[in-house]
Amino acid sequence: MHEIFVNYRTKGGKEVAYSCDRVLSARFGPDSVFLARKSIEPGDNTGALVRAARRSHVLLALVDEEWLDAPDRDRPGRRALDNPQDWVRREVEEALVSGVLIVPLFIGRRVEQLDPRRLPRSIAEIAECQYTRVELHSLETDLARLGDRLVRLVPALASLDRGARADESAPAEPDFTVRNDRQSGGIGQVSGNVGTYVHDARGPLHTGDGDQINGTQINGDGTNHIAGDNHGGIRQGFGTRTPRGGEER
Model's pTM, two decimal places? Predict the structure, then answer.
């Protein structure tokens, strides 16, 4: 038995349907996914579709931007979904009657949540099903997350799971900044007033109270004293040194 049935229209959903088959078959086994083009034996179109839709554990209903109003090739000027013989509609009907878990799979960000008032009454229930969304530019990752979700929902798939989970828990690279005790704000995901934060110090560093002393300390009455090597002359007074380069990011 095929655990996952891929329901799609050739125009608009074919590319994602084939990717679903490839990614999910690799994860759950080559016989776990039903895709009409590969799974139907010659001469057994109607019976195979109906049986597979009824017996699967999950039906993925691939919905692209034109899915709802896709034209009926046999009845010009009418929607395909309004035709009781439309195979996309029939497969969903069979799955609903059999109690199969249906997951609408929205392709792209422009697909809006389905409105039951615009669906045939026999499949209006899928508008209430929890959907998920995939993008063509991140299809592999999105389908890996879909697999993770199916494993949690369907025990039969959990027993077939070969791994390849999406890493949803990996933290994003932090954006290091420096703030002192007169500033408020946050570092990464930490908010509030914070003390001095230093990333990658490359020299002597003092972050507490008091003077910082690097090298020899000479205290006296203000007379000039020289400590260490005097190559290059003596420079007195105050100046500002501009560091080379900008902030490390």
Answer: 0.65
